[in-house]
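subagent[fold] <- orchestrator: predict structure for attached chain, return tokens only, no commentary.
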Amino acid sequence: MTDIQDNIFERRESKVRSYCRNFDTLFVKASGSEMTDAEGKTYIDFLAGCSTLNYGHNDPDMKQALIEHITRDGVAHGLDMYTDAKAEWLQAMEDKILKPRGMTDYKIMMTGPTGTNAVEAAVKLARKVTGRSNVIAFTNGFHGMTLGALALTGNAGKRAGAGLGGSGLHGTTHLPYAGAFGDDVDTLDQIEMMLENSSSGLDAPAAFIFEPIQGEGGLNAASKEWMQGIARLAKKHGALLIVDDIQSGCGRSGDYFGFEIAGIKPDIITQAKSLSGMGLPFACVLLKKEHDIWKPAEHNGTFRGNNHAFVTARVTLEKFWSDDSFQKEVREKSEILTEGLQKIADLIPGAKLKGRGMMQGVDVGTGDLASDICSRSFEKGLIIETSGADDEVVKVLAPLTTPVETFRKGLSILLEAASEATSSAKIAAE
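subagent[fold] -> orchestrator:
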């Protein structure tokens, strides 16, 4: 560990820092699917900024476009003024994403630069449209760390960070997500019963909000039937359907949107993380035109749209989403991922695969074992993290652009680490 790490981070950075505690080295360079530290050691990145770097680190085309924009004194910050960078991204979004998916009835709302900003705006709008306050969220969901989004979040540890003892996190009813009680229990039936029973204590909802694949919640993936069922219930009960596609979107699921397999058209969609393509802060809300009832500046913010992110986001759409070739590559890699993770699951009694597409992992049963696997992986040159209520899931979020050879190498490291950790756990138990 360098003198810089020993001193400046410990001396000046808050104790709230987290990822650096698991990856205790000084990173100085990143390219594609790899990161390099100050000692010259290179790591394969299976975290990708928690799905913020779906297209890898420092994509050369995005980087060149951004350099050109900066060197010609292109607008860096313009509030929500009209700029050429914004116009070009909006046009690309219309041409490459919305039109091909029959979604031309959506408007795009720029929010603050992070996912939680998008969620706050979505919920605020749903309450304004419906005149109701209650929002139905789901077990194991994660929607952000600001108070409104945190009220929707299930994780007790994250909620405790509000310092309110839960009393200030209100306006939300949490119901069981798909598969919450096992594969044999259809939670749609339970949700419908709660909505239909006038004595259930469930206030009429302004909105339902769910993640197609729960990233922080343990890679629980909703079936197309469950998503269709929630969409049906929302419409029946006069609520808006909000899909939080912040971590599962931008190709991570195998489609651009994580809900596409269900064929639904949510009222509101939140996007962030890989929206900029290059890791630059950028978030937005897609909303059906009939819900666009804001008055000018009624929802405001200094950083509504990052012009540098507009530049790289446009390149992202033009480079990866002009046809279906990239989507096919992602789906092929997802099969490699499933195969690789199954080998790990076969090592561990009771382990099971979780997730969908390039958002998969292995539930190894305990947070201790999952943490040990990730720690051993890092020692061997692989960056990977856990998720789930008790951090029991080893989660793979590799860049979608990872070369197949590198991808297989990373999975081999993970398998080796899992084998060692499992053997160590068996010895300790004897």
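orchestrator: received. Logging for downstream: The first helix runs from residue 3 to 12. Residues 135 and 202 are 10 Å apart (CA to CA).
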